[in-house]
Design goal:
Elements (H helix, E strand, L loop, with lengths): L31 H4 L1 H16 L3 H12 L2
Length: 69
């Protein structure tokens, strides 16, 4: 006993069950840093610059310089 569906039609470009990554369908959303790497790097640079402006770095720099005297 066999099951026949339709009249021997060919099924093309369809997916049944789990979709595999080899089917060419990519439903993953890209993250902001993947979409806009230049903007993300500028943002990180500005944040790092603001952190380096804090006054406690002066004490840290003096301590490092005293190690090499």
């Amino acid at each position: 006993m066999s099951i026949r569906i339709g009249d021997n039609n060919k099924i093309k470009n369809s997916s049944i069950g789990h979709q595999s990554s080899s089917s060419g369908v990519n439903n993953e959303k890209k993250k902001f840093h993947e979409k806009h790497p230049a903007l993300f790097s500028i943002f990180v640079s500005v944040v790092a610059g603001i952190i380096l402006l804090f006054s406690f770095w002066e004490t840290f720099i003096i301590w490092i310089e005293s190690l090499f005297k």
